[in-house]
Amino acid sequence: IMLEYEKHGELKTKSIDLLDLGPSTDVSALVEEIQKAEPLLTASRTEQVKLLIQRLQEKLGQNSNHTFYLFKVLKAHILPLTNVALNKSGSCFITGSYDRTCKLWDTASGEELNTLEGHRNVVYAIAFNNPYGDKIATGSFDKTCKLWSVETGKCYHTFRGHTAEIVCLSFNPQSTLVATGSMDTTAKLWDIQNGEEVYTLRGHSAEIISLSFNTSGDRIITGSFDHTVVVWDADTGRKVNILIGHCAEISSASFNWDCSLILTGSMDKTCMLWDATNGKCVATLTGHDDEILDSCFDYTGKLIATASADDGVSLCRPGRSAVARSWLTATCASQVQAILLPQPPELCHVLGNHV
Predict the structure, then answer these.
(1) Per-residue pLDDT tens digits for 252-300
(2) Is residue 184 one of the residues assigned to a domain?
(3) pLDDT tops 50 at residue 333
(4) In this structure, are 39 and 108 located in the same domain?
(5) Other CB atoms closer than 10 Å to residue 42's CB: what's the count?
(6) Are residues 21 and 106 in the same domain?
(7) Are residues 82 and 187 located together in one domain of the fold?
(8) Which CATH number belongs to the domain containing residue 125 in this structure?
(9) Residue 37's domain spans which residues?
(10) Is residue 12 in a domain?
(11) Residue-wise burial string across 56-77, b where 16 or more C-beta atoms lie within 10 A, e elsewhere
(12) Counting CB atoms within 10 angstroms of each CB, which of 27, 142, 315, 329 has the fewest?
């Protein structure tokens, strides 16, 4: 649940973790527990919060065996696409392209809502400021990042300062900052309100190709071709930890929801799990036969998915042991693994071929 409140005339947000909510959870008892821990939720809001949690509970109880099918094919751009991103509700999405534009689309109808024009080179990195979804950031090979209005398509700011291509970006959860990562080996934090640079994060010796905030917005991680991931304090711009262990370029880096773990994927064919507090490696995921191209946690932080150039997708359950250990893999003919912890390991899913 996201709470929005005003403090000293400034609008702020706060999130409440509902990761343990299940179909059999006692909602009244849960709301009571939340209110004890969160003074922002007064008695006058009790029924509203109960109704919201009951709706979430109903969704959790629904049948998850969805059938997926091709919904629409959109002739989006005149040149190849680089990225796609959805807003929080999924009602609209954006596409970036080599044609130097970003387009906004209505998901249900497939109608083009707006074309964001202004970059002078490839639009490579794109994002909504979820969960709000009223702004879009675009990062380009022209070395700039632009901030746009979803409603009007107006460009609020153009962030200039990088000396090479911008290849990754992210909003903080509070939607007060946007972070950009560049081939110039630096990341920058920008103030959304005034368009000014807040900090430059220096310390990598090669290109930064992945970055992500944690859910509280006080930490940001950057993954680099120098084989390392750096944890930064988003409030001061200072380096907190350096995650050293991969022996090839980093391809992805992200926090789990409760900010306790960091997941990194690498061209060395492995993923690693790290303690987000002390920066120590707690597990190494092996089993893929080629480079890891992407990796992520599910919303609970209990499952991990990894995608590899070996045509494989793995689903894993991270162990909470402080000791790094091997991961059991079950492999089908298409080189797709399913990996589980803790012991005894069991097969979770085997996913079919990609061609």
Answers:
(1) 999 998 899 999 999 999 999 999 999 999 999 988 999 999 999 988 7
(2) yes
(3) no
(4) no
(5) 9
(6) no
(7) yes
(8) 2.130.10.10
(9) 2-61
(10) yes
(11) ebeeeeeeeeeeeeeeeeeebb
(12) 27
In this structure, the answer to whether residues 25 and 102 fall within a common structural domain is: no
- 94 and 189, same domain (yes or no): yes
| CA-to-CA separations, 343 to 194, 286, 320, in angstroms, rounded | 51, 16, 11
Q: pLDDT at position 352, please?
A: 43
Query: Is the torsion defined by CA of 318, 321, 322, 326 positive or negative?
Result: negative
Q: Are residues 175 and 81 in the same domain?
A: yes
Q: Is the model's pLDDT at 344 over the cut of 70?
A: no
Res 322 pLDDT > 60:
no
136 plus 165 within the same structural domain: yes
Nearest-angstrom CA–CA distance, 155 and 71: 31
Please write the tens of the pLDDT for every residue from 138-150.
999 999 999 999 9
Number of domains present in the structure of the chain: 2
**The tokens 């107006």 sit on which residue?**
154
In a domain? residue 249? no
3-state SS string for the chain:
CEEEEEECCEEEEEECCCCCCCCCCCHHHHHHHHHHHCCCCCHHHHHHHHHHHHHHHHHHHCCCCCCCCCCCCCCCCCCCEEEEEECCCCCEEEEEECCCCEEEEECCCCCEEEEECCCCCCEEEEEECCCCCCEEEEEECCCEEEEEECCCCCEEEEEECCCCCEEEEEECCCCCEEEEEECCCCEEEEECCCCCEEEEECCCCCCEEEEEECCCCCEEEEEECCCEEEEEECCCCCEEEEEECCCCCEEEEEECCCCCEEEEEECCCCEEEEECCCCCEEEEECCCCCCEEEEEECCCCCCEEEEECCCCEEEEECCCCCCCCCCEEEECCCCCEEEECCCCCCCCCCCCCCC
